[in-house]
Amino acid sequence: MAVVGVALLLGQAIYLFSTYWIAMWSSKSFDVQQEAHWIWGYAIMVAALLAVSLSRAQLYFAAALGAASRLHDAAAARVLRAPLAFFHTNPAGRVINRFSKDQSVLDEHLPAVSFDSLQALMMVLGGFVLLMVVVPIIIPVFLPVMVALWLVYRWYVAASSAVKRHEAVSRSPVFAQLSAVLRGLPSVRAYAARDRVRADFLRALSVNGAWYFVYITCARWVGFRLDVIVAALSAVAPLLMMAVHERMSARLVGLALTQTLSLAGMLQWMVRQAADVENCMTSVERLVEYTQLDQEPPALEEGGPAPPKDWPGDQSVVFESVTAQYRPGLPPVLKDLSFALPPGTRCGVVGRTGSGKSSLLLALFRLIPVTRGRVLLGGTDVARVALDCLRRQLAVIPQDPVLFSGTVRSNLDPWRAHEDAALWQALRAVHLAGAAQALGGLSAPMHEAGDNWSVGQRQLLCLARALLQDAS
User: Fold this and answer.
1) Is 215 helix (H, G, I), strand (E, B) or coil?
2) DSSP string for 268-326
């Protein structure tokens, strides 16, 4: 970024000197103007300015996009390792909103407006330097203008940043409802809930649209006031030039007037772009928040404790006075629970909804925190084993089958740890080899959530995946 700053200063210096060069050129006599060094000097300055402008833009946008990519990767890594409590308190629409709209602001809008604001700042500083050297009498005119622009800028940013934040927050329910409707479309049609769902979606869309309208109104408010300030400066500057033109040469008066009118417009543009940058920082703030999420316990390669040799040994499962809760502040879902399952035991858990059946598995997988007691697998406390080592020894077939877009192979063996022969053996074990072969084999496409397979086949695919895991 230091190189970009130097390039911005160098480019502005070349631009100002080229302007002064033209003023000097135009003041010469006709015969002198025909000398070749004038046109060659100007051509060299134009070529240098073009080279500097292209190089600084390339460097800046490469750095900006690199920073946006690193922020995305850091936020995504933290979300993927976030505890289950995060997903209970943050709907999918909110997460999608941050990785879509907020990320697009970082990738597309923020680099452009921030670069524009830096260029405008350099042009404003360069214009002031030129005016102080050539026509210092014009500087006092800019002082009240700058004060007025600063006040308008602060008022606008104070309001627009808050409005932009509310607009971003109100967008999350739109994403959440849309994704929920797409997942539950058969149920919506079966229960004739189309009108109610449509009304709920339009209500969320209206709230988001209302905040966006307020944001646009704020932009129009600041735009009108900036136009008024610049119009007043554009009217006063020529009058001042007329008052002092007898004490200055015509070329300096023309140069000062040109720079003054250019500077007035550039001041307005700088304020607009600087305010837009500050509004865009709302999206940066929301993504940075995800880089500071709490994380699950570390994996083995991250410093987590290694399991004992030959663990899990006898493969017994023991709960000793276990109390667990989904997150702090909520009542426990398991209360002083104790039982033991010897190796090879088949156990069925029966109970009403909310009695804690699923919570047993969540505690075993360490997806929810155990606040008291111990869970033992093979005689070892699972809290003393690295998370990846523990979960590699466990396999679960969910009630709702979970499959991902890709291929049959990528869903059965996402880590590519098995040969094709092992995959076909698992498919034959669940009687899906024929169905997979008919669709194109292991490379057959898998649609989103496995929609090109029946629900029963999806369950069997999950069973085949569990068999491949060879868990204890």
Assistant:
1) helix
2) HHHHHHHHHHHHHHHHHHHHHHHTT---PPP-GGGTPPPPPTTTTTT--EEEEEEEE-S
Q: Is the CB of residue 409 less than 8 Å from the CB of residue 465?
A: no
Whole-number average pLDDT of the chain: 85
Mean pLDDT, range 69-89, rounded to an integer: 93
Angle (CA) 429-434-439 rounded to 5° is 125
Judge if 242 and 372 occupy the same domain.
Answer: no
Peptide bond into 332 cis (omega under 30): no
Closest CA to 260 of 419, 432, 128, 101: 128
pLDDT band at 252 (very low <50, low <70, confident <90, very high): low
How many beta carbons lie within 10 A of that of residue 118, not counting itself?
19
pLDDT of residue 416: 87
Integer angstrom CA distances of residue 119 from 107, 277, 282, 442: 19, 13, 22, 54
For 31-78, the DSSP string reads HHHT-HHHHHHHHHHHHHHHHHHHHHHHHHHHHHHHHHHHHHHHHHHH
Whether residue 224 is found in the same domain as residue 336: no
In 325-452, beta strands by DSSP E: 334-341, 370-377, 380-381, 406-407, 445-446
SS3 92: helix
Q: Which of 212, 187, 207 minimizes the C-alpha distance to 197?
A: 187
Domain contains 295:
no
Answer whether residue 138 shows pLDDT above 80. Answer: no
Q: Which of 392, 421, 445 is the last residue of a domain?
A: 392
Within this chain, do residues 263 and 320 fall inside the same structural domain, yes or no? no
Residue type, 159: A
pLDDT in tens, 378-412: 889 999 999 988 988 888 887 788 888 899 999 99
DSSP string, 225-238: HHHHHHHHHHHHHH
For position 154, which CATH number holds?
Answer: 1.20.1560.10
Dihedral of the CA atoms 96, 278, 120, 1 (nearest 10)?
-70
d(CA 286, CA 188): 33
Domain residues for 435?
406-469
Tokens of 333: 């879902």
Residue 297 confidence (pLDDT) above 80: yes
